[in-house]
Input
Amino acid sequence: MAAAVHSEPLLPEPGTPADGILTKATQFVQATGATHASLRQLAAAFGTSHRMLQYHFGTREKLLGAVMLRLRKNDLAELSASATSRADFLGRAWELYLTPGHQFQSRLFFSLAGAAMEDLEAHSAFLGTVVTGWTPTLAALGRAEGLSDHDAQSEAWLLVAAFRGLLLDMFLTGDQAAARQAFEALLRMVAPSVAS
Output
């Protein structure tokens, strides 16, 4: 039986203790790239107790899922603010995720995705935005390019999957040149829709 797509989890309310902890956790993960630390190690690293982390987030996996959600929301806001087309959005995203400061984020994403396949419930905070993070933006851009609602949504899903697949292949093989060539081919496939 297929698992249902999870609804998007909520981030803590701004100004709450949980929000402060999530901010520290996000800054720590961004600064160090450390994603394999235990809950106790994470708590010690940013000056709280593992009991506080358990109280607000439950598990290490849910904390890292919330960190990933915050990072992705920040990136989406940045990318959406300036994107003029699906190709433009994807091109900006590609350049962003190849910067050293963002490569750890992609690795964290794929690490959480792999773990989530083994335990969907433990990674519910992460699963809430696996597909829904970028698809509304890409679908809106597709509709602006003249696609029907159905085609815009379907192609948005496809573009997210293709983008992630190319990133994953690049990280696994180390062949950045081949991944870039394939990505440029993907952009060429999207471009005719812009011109139509």
The chain has a mean pLDDT of 85. Residues 72-195 form one domain. The radius of gyration is 18 Å.
